[in-house]
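Milestone 3.1: sequence recovery, worked example.
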């Protein structure tokens, strides 16, 4: 059970990181 929980957590963290990267990329493009 713990293994599945950590797996879901890693997946959510990955999604959040992807969103953050996209946001930072968009901001950098807008500032240029």
């Amino acid at each position: 059970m713990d293994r599945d929980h950590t797996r879901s957590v890693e997946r959510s963290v990955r999604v959040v990181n992807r969103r953050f990267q996209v946001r930072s990329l968009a901001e950098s493009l807008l500032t240029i």
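The chain has a mean pLDDT of 93. Helices lie at 2-31.
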